[in-house]
Design goal:
There is one protein chain. A hairpin with a 2-residue loop joins β4 (86-88) and β5. A 5-stranded mixed β-sheet has the order 2-1-3-5-4. The chain has helices spanning 29-37, 39-42, 57-63, 97-108; strands at 5-9, 46-50, 72-74, 86-88, 91-94. Helices cover 28% and strands 18% of the residues. It has 4 helices and 5 strands. The longest helix has 12 residues, at 97-108. The protein is globular and about 45 Å long. The protein has one domain (5-108): 3-Layer(aba) Sandwich (Glutaredoxin). The protein is an alpha+beta fold and 114 residues long.
Amino acid sequence: MAKDRLILLQPGFSDTKYPGEQFVCIDCLPVEGLLASDPARGAALQVERVPFEKPRQAVVEALGPDHQSLPVLILGDALAAPDDALQANGLRFVNDTRRILALLAERHGFFRVH
């Protein structure tokens, strides 16, 4: 996989626990904000938004059913994976929001978060 792949929850999802309400993912929101700050840089990534409901098929296919937490940055092979990246199904990934933001700055030139 050449490009880094970023998977986020689609904003405006519903949860059966709270009928009639719509939500955004509190962990995906900062990543969405960073992407919106520089759409041209975001084009260098493969960005996907998936529904809230599990199983989250795109994530399961990539990392397996035990790694459906979002957001997740699946690291491509164009750049070396950092030492703290996790591994599943032969892929390296990061699912901590602050670390994803840092890696988007390091690997793709986005603004750094302070």
